[in-house]
Structures are given as structure tokens and as C-alpha cells.
Amino acid sequence: MGEFVSKVMDWIESTHIQEQVADVDYVGLFSNPWFMVPFVLLILYLLYKQSFKDLIVITCFVGVWWVTGTEYMNTLVVGDELQVSKVLPVLFGGAALVGFLIYLFFGRSD
What we know:
Layout: H1 2-15, H2 17-22, H3 26-30, H4 33-48, H5 52-68, H6 71-74, E1 77-78, E2 81-82, H7 84-107
Antiparallel strand pairs: 1-2
């Protein structure tokens, strides 16, 4: 199992996914009609179908993506040292979000 995980991690590092995500120009993305038209159509379709769970999940993904680009996230690691006092709110916020999504999908009945 450890060999499989190390192969997957090596593959992720070889694709440079983290660098690509960090280099995304979100202003350019949200002003690009090739992204915005399908995105807005998806949101309108989900509103029409009243699929609020999917809308909440999309909102959570966009929110997490936005939060990861803030200055607060850039200061989590100073030099080579992790700032534990800044990591704990992120950890608890992520746990609360995951708990909310689990409640949304498994705790409620429609």
C-alpha cells in the first residue's frame, strides 16, 4: 500500500498540479466568456432544477479556492516553519465545512 501511495504522490509531483493551481489567474478566469457562460448556465440550470445541494457544494468549492489564495494562507508557513497558531483556525474551519457537507448529504432527508 505504501508503494502505491508513493507512486501516486510521485505522479502528482511530476504533473506540477500544485504550481498550476497556484498560478491560476482568477480575475482572468472569471472575465473569460469561455468559462463564465457555461458556469452561469450551470448555476441557472441548478436553480431551475432546485438542486440546492449541488449549488451549496459548488459554492463551497469556490469559497475554499478563494480562501486558499488570500494573504492569510500565504503566511501559514514563514521560512521553513509552520505557524501552528494560524493553522488551527484553518483546520477547524475545514473540519466544520466537511461536517456540514456530510450533514447535507447524509443527515438530512428530502
